[in-house]
Amino acid sequence: MIRKYPHLSAPIRLGRVTFRNRMFAAPTGATDITWDCCPGPGSRAFYENRARGGSANVTVSELVVHPETDASHMLHLDLQTPGALAAFTMIADAIRRHGSIPSVELSHSGQYAGTYLIDKNKKQGLAQYGPSDGTRSDGRPVKALSREQIAEIVASYAEKAALAKRAGFEMLMIHAGHGWLINQFLSPYFNKRTDEYGGDLTGRARLLLEVLDSVRAAVGEGFPIEVRMSGSELFEGGYTLEDGIQIAQLLDGKADLIHVSAGSYQFGFFDTHPSMFSDHGCNVYLAAEIKKHVSTPVATVGALNDPAQMEEIIASGKADVVEMARALIADPELPGKVMEGRDDEITRCLRCFVCMAERPLTGTRRCTVNPRIGRELDAPALPARRAKKVLIAGGGCGGMAAAIAAARRGHRVILCEKEAETGGILRSEQAIPFKKEMYQLGLTLTRKMELEGVEVRLNTEVTPAYAEQEQADALIIAVGSEPIVPPLPGMDEKNVIVVNDYYRRSTECAETVVVLGGGLAGCECAIHLAQEGKKVTLVEMRPEVAPDANIRHRPILMRMLEKLVDVRTSHTGLAVTPEGLLCRNAEGQEELIRGETVICAVGQRSRKHDALLDAAPFVRVIGDAVRPSTIGTAVYQGWHAGLDV
Q1: Pairing mode, if any, of strands 225-230 and 566-568?
Q2: Cis ω before 62 (30° cut-off from 0)
């Protein structure tokens, strides 16, 4: 048949196994790990969803091979723990029954043992091992592994590989990147050994090659082995792309797939996991260069979610396989939609890091745009016993999520939006390139409403009289929020732009700008304006900016602000003048912050909706109408409100 993305949809054979397309589900951590480090039923459902969605393979992450020297609370597999082998067998079966190839990532954290522990104090009691004696950046001492310990670790890779094969896994990944143990041995920054496991690259690569040989002996010829490596560590003192090429050449003919990632945990988290401030596919060049020097198929990874870009990567020979992690959290059905030419229905990852921030905080998985992630075992919504008339007030992301959910249950859904288009506050993101996926989310939800048969009435406000006229069985109030505009002198002048209206008035923005408000919206707008070459000052009355940013997004946000924007905290706005913003600084003195344009980004307040609370038998208030929050809160509450009708 003729496919829209023929190269991305083409099968590939690795070892003796054929994979149905070139889209692989990269390693993503389990969601419910038991106290004895077994995967729980939630993890099985999480990985099965990826297989059902069309991925050619699904890699379970991370199986710690040697708990004696890596006491991380991640997955363990042995015959001594009752139920461990059974739990892995159930996961492999759940993946395979949907036509996807189950794989598991064999890993050792080395000196970063305990990274994912929720109780961070517990890390202090863990022994940290690495190639050499040293001290971590947080002051924790690192002990060099002895030859005897290295031999035990190599043997443990083989043992876990054999058990994984016995459980039904048909592929394995050896994690040799991102600053974990094997990468620490490869790195001249971490590896200062003078024995056969140190010195030149041949010595530093000895552990990797011994592990690969031991795993091969355990699983046999033809069983696909994938090696994940950093194409470059991307920090001073680490190994370079030229070294990465040599490492790949040592793997050539031994591994079945060379998976080229980037960066190192200590120095390059945002190289390994590119943020919204980075270009999509910013690490592809590493795989493309390595592919020129090896005959083994090469995979690339890193912020890939656009089928057109991924098709070009395969078609142009930059890589043989593309791998996705966050993109498949946002939409596990992405590969299947690509295969069927339904790419306009893909929900794109926002690269907001909510999925990665939640795990170290609560040990759960959450996604801004996918309300089912981490909750796959929740009872599925059954078709409604009686089709009802559902009226939704507001066409933002929450209202649209509610409409889709209710329509899928078989209800007649009418969504009213008082503006001329749906999307709500997401429309304001279209003028900021690194937030384009947020704007696209509005378009995708609109498309999904169309497919579900939702009746959309634009330029229509739901009032009590309108609700009375419609006589709906259920009313979902999703009227959202509106910007707070402080009553400062001059705030109504033409040189002031409310951040929500920036997309309409971006051409009016001058070359010097003051952004009033250091919340997430203000910070991201300030970064965008600075990237455009404008001189930007960010003013915040609190002692810190972006306290509402999650723990993964905030560090990169702060780094971008430090590099691009003049940030003034503990400054209170007093008045807008033609020259800029008059403030009171931390010392209590008046200070004029100069800027030809002032962007008002001081926050949002819920729109009034009390008159609608008794307008139908079933009423639910969601999203910013409850209190200003996040896209994720609105989508989650909207989705479940729609299911509850």
Answers
A1: unpaired
A2: yes
Give residue for tokens 């050792």.
108
Dihedrals phi, psi of 241, to nearest 5 degrees: -60, -35
pLDDT at position 482 over 90: yes
Residue for token digits 């592919």? 291
Query: For residue 249, which of 234, 229, 265, 235 has the smallest C-alpha distance?
Result: 229
Instruction: Pick the closest to residue 255 from 14, 26, 12 (CA basis).
Output: 14
Closest CA to 171 of 333, 25, 6: 25
Predicted confidence at residue 633, as pLDDT, reads 97
Reported as a single tens digit per residue, the pLDDT across 80-125 is 999 999 999 999 999 999 999 999 999 999 998 876 665 656 655 5
Alpha helices in 34-77 (DSSP H): 41-52
The CA distance from 187 to 190, in Å, is 6
Q: Look up tokens 């889209």; give the residue.
A: 23
Query: What is 266-307 written as a DSSP string?
Result: TT-HHHHS--TTSPTTTTHHHHHHHHTT-SS-EEEESS---H
The DSSP H or E segment spanning 13 is strand 12-14
What pLDDT digit, counting tens, does each position of 445-461 carry? 999 999 999 999 999 99
Question: What is the β-pairing status of strands 23-29 and 57-64?
Answer: parallel
This prediction's pTM: 0.95
Cα–Cα distance, 275 to 554 (Å, whole number): 11
Nearest to 22 by CA among 33, 34, 14: 14
Place of tokens 């089912």: 372
